[in-house]
Amino acid sequence: QVQLVESGGGLVQAGGSLRLSCAASGIIFSINDMGWYRQAQGKQRELVAGITSGGRTNYGDSVKGRFSISRDNAKRTMYLQMNSLKPEDTAVYYCNADIKVVGGFGRNYWGQGTQVTVSS
C-alpha cells in the first residue's frame, strides 16, 4: 500500500513564505512524475507545479517566479517552497505522484491535502 502524506501547511500573512513537503511510503519500486495541485473553495483543482523523476519542472502561470518545486528521490519526498504568498493562494494543496509498486503496476496517487491560508 502506498501513501502520500503532505505537511507544512498553515496560516501565513500575505508576503510570507511556507514550505510544503510530501513524503511517499510503502513498497515502492519507482516514483515518476510528481506534482502539487490546489483547490480553492468553490473552484476546480488546478496544477501548481510538476516535477519529473529527472528534475524537469513546470509551473502554473499564477505561481511562476514565486513558488519552487523540488524532490529528494532518496528520501522519496517532494517539496514546494512558496514565497511572496498572496491571499489568492489560499487553498487545499494536494500532492500527486505516479508510483510503481514492487511486483505490481504503476498508478496515480493523491495525498489527503494540507490547508494553506494567506491572510491579507
Structure explained in plain terms:
The chain has 120 residues and is mainly β. The protein has no helices and eleven strands. The chain has strands spanning 3-7, 10-13, 18-25, 28-39, 46-51, 57-59, 67-72, 77-82, 91-101, 106-110, 114-119. The strands form two sheets. Strands 2, 4, 5, 6, 9, 10 and 11 form a seven-stranded mixed sheet that branches. Strand 4 (28-39) and strand 5 (46-51) form a beta hairpin. It starts with a strand and ends with a strand. The model has no long low-confidence stretch (mean pLDDT 97).
Rg (C-alpha, Å): 14 Å
Q: Assign a percent range to the helix content.
A: under 10%
Ranges with pLDDT <50 over ≥5 residues? none
Main beta-sheet strand count, sense and barrel state: 7 strands, mixed
Based on Cα principal axes, name the global outline. Answer: elongated
The structure class reads mainly beta
Written as H for each helix and E for each strand, in order along the chain, the element string is EEEEEEEEEEE
What fraction of residues sit in β-strands?
A: over 45%
For the termini, the CA-CA separation is: 40 Å
Q: Count the helices. How many?
A: 0
Could you give the count of β-strands? 11
What is the mean pLDDT?
97
